[in-house]
User: Fold these one by one.
Assistant:
Number 1:
Amino acid sequence: MRKNEFEALQALERHATPFLGAAYAEALVELAGEAKFALIGEASHGTSEFYVERAELSKRLIVEKGFKFIAVEGDWPSCYVLNRYVKGDDAAGTIAAEALRDFARWPTWMWANREIAAFADWLRVYNDGKAEEDKVGFYGIDLYSLWESMDEILKYLAQKDGTDLEAAKRAFECFEPHGREEQQYGIAANFYGEGCETEVVALLRKLQDKWQSARSGDREDALAAELNALAVKGAEDYYRTMIRHDAESWNVRDRHMVEALERLMAYHGPMAKAVVWAHNTHIGDARATDMADEGMVNVGQLLRETHDGDVYSIGFGTYEGTVIAGRGWGRPFEEMKVPPAQSGSLEELLHRFEPADKLLLLDDAEQVLRESKLGHRAIGVVYHPEYERGNYVPTTLAERYDAFIFLDRTSALAPLAVEAAFS
């Protein structure tokens, strides 16, 4: 065993305490509850325990610490349907599974699953009987919904009077020749000068801050129109950039998520507090990983830079188990085995001294946990368990997160059959 590895193992053992579930994580809730932004991660998009414990922590932050909304690594239009459901709108569905039918684009399982349905039903009950301004929302802050967001904007503005609809139609007509093919749009924008940046910026300006003057019953729908326009702008930038620079397209995406968060905070007022759900690679500070060497930033870093002292980041990890993922983009999801973590990795060291669930609060972490980089597993929506080595992100644990939850053995989440149930 290398000296650094031995020192890290000893430090992890000294800092780790048993994790018995969010219901017993008093110190964690107190610390996260002091922040304006509680960032709660996951080491995969297909692990049941990550979703369940994240939801249980969020419930406590909502009930005990007054957090106003959940913002997730999901698309605005689909999440807004779920937002309407949890706020009691039967038109969005009378059970959570109906409200989740909009998550029909791959990877469907990421949000259309039983774990999210259970949390949505809890949130609907929690919101029942509350004044509209006191209800807790559920929003998507990602940018992949270019076409869906354009559709929602046109639908919303068709009910209004004014010139905003014309701006939306011009943006839609600019994108229309590309047949809802993002790659085709990116190529056309980069190599043939057929970009739509001017049109989408003009549309966003038309819709920006309209919620401030909207009548009370229309305020959140006006906000939704603005956030859809922001998603269109972000997606246009993302797909145009992706053709040329992978690292910069990542940065476009994470900067977009932060901008969407800032607009949600403005809408909910100066005392608002947000819970953010996203992969560890987004919520943990990129400067504490090799992402920084590639010129990449992320949500955790950007929020820490602009809201110093008001951000609390919680990472997750597992030693072994099962997970839901696909073997290629757009491929059918399947349950896969997560093999035991590689020797010397963060997860393997935490398992080595005791194969049990653990919590690490890192505010007073020893120097070795602020200097040593340990491999830390990250599983995406595309996964090949047989090629594990490339899934480990070199991580300075106590610089990346404020707290870390280690679940020794985990299981695959339970997807809802969205297409089969609602076709």
Note: The domain at 144-253 is CATH 1.20.1440 (de novo design (two linked rop proteins)).
Number 2:
Amino acid sequence: MPATTALRRTLAALAALPLLTLAACGYGSQAKDDDTAQVAAGAEKTDGLDSVRIGYFGNITHATALVGRQKGFFQKELGGTKATYATFNAGPSEIEALNSGSIDIGWIGPSPAINGYTKSGGKNLRIIGGSASGGVKLVVNPEKIRSAKDIKGKRIATPQLGNTQDVAFLNWVAEQGWKVDAQSGRGDVTVVRSDNKVTPDAYKSGSLDGAWVPEPTASRLVAEGGKVLLDEADLWPDKKFVITNIIVSQKFLKEHPKAVEAVLRASVDANEWITDHPDEAKAAANKQLAADTGKALPAGVLDPAWESIRLTDDPLAATLDAQAAHAVKAGLLDKPDLRGIYDLTLLNKVRKAKGEPAVDDAGLGIG
């Protein structure tokens, strides 16, 4: 068996492990029915639906969903249809929930969206909008690492084998001319796959020299004495790259386009409100995080994390295509056919109604 084939089969098996574990726990945490926004008495149901099930991560890079829920944007647009929620800790579990029908629409990172789409032969999901750009940093121990060249020989964490930040770091390492085996993480740099929840403690103990991680983990590391060596935004044109997309089940999109449009309208409205009310929006996101995770972020972590995120309706499709190419180069993905992964029809309809220009699918749309 060729080495590359064996590697990919091993990676596929590894990728399935967290999926199976989380699936056994019911995919995601079902939200308590304690939202401020309740269905208005006598309100008309959208597409005749009793509910629309929305998934997202309890993470500041999912600020649109956090604020949209906390401030009632989703419920307002869905009218007599109840917005229900599930929170997730990992992309594979959210994709499985979408596939099983446990959720209808979700906020998710680019790598899980790519993997979910390609593994189903392009039959399970569509990306229907963008949500956030940026919010990923390389934070290091300043006593051990003072410049990029000092990364060689060090132990650097990423959140998960093959996840969005793991792919980005492996690509950056390759661009430095260093070699790392993607599967084991061994080479000129040691890549340690570490859950974002434990990475700050691992850094504090000295077992890690740094981490390539999203917010708010990056700001947690800075609070522990770390220093930002690199903001990933600086590696991208116009400092923009997708960190969070909105996906939907193709079946749900076909059968309930009015409900999908309502959620997209709420998302666009939420992003607009966040831009116009940054301090109030930050507080709302943190309040929802506290409800979802049991703990609000302290100001010293929340403030810098919030500043590094750029909310956007644009899915920044060209950067998703580039991220897929990076995964192929790292040996984590066979060259994918991403044609049809986007359907921005409803998003552009919503934007047109607001007098906003259409966003582009980089040639990866339907039809």
Note: The CA atoms of residues 133 and 242 lie 5 Å apart.
Number 3:
Amino acid sequence: MSVQSRIYQYVGPAALKAAVRPDSGGCMVGSAADFSSWVAARSSAELAEPFTFVVGTDGVLRLAPRRSEHVACAGGGPVLSAGEISFARSAGRWGVGDVSNQSTGYCPDISSWWAVARALDRVGLERPCSFTHEVVFRRCPGCQEHNIVREDDFVCVFCGSDLPEAWNVDPAI
């Protein structure tokens, strides 16, 4: 499977996925009209904070309040990307302020940006050319724990083992 077609399975706590209700998915934003309706329903206080997002396997952006679990935003299913996103209004237009792949439930690789870019382009939102904050996730081959790599230090914080250079979080890979 190519990097651009990688599908991320949920790798977080099983109890969080088990708590997902079938109707709990985030708000689907697949067009400019969808975004206009969604943003009009948000308060200024809500819009001041980032939102949880996923891009479903259908390529559609889904948004939920920041403190929502990504797996709930995705309705329990796999995703093409996940993270946090904020929006800003400039010159009368909405655009993306910041966007990251910060999701410890899916641990998407930074290469998942292509799915986010495509979803945002479909909605017609101005966006950066990549994640504004990139998070590097790796699974330790020794203890199997998920790690966030900081400052290019590819060492497991749990057991001290070396972490692989390539993304490997999904145990099926």
Note: The helical segments are 14-18, 32-40, 44-47, 70-73, 113-123.
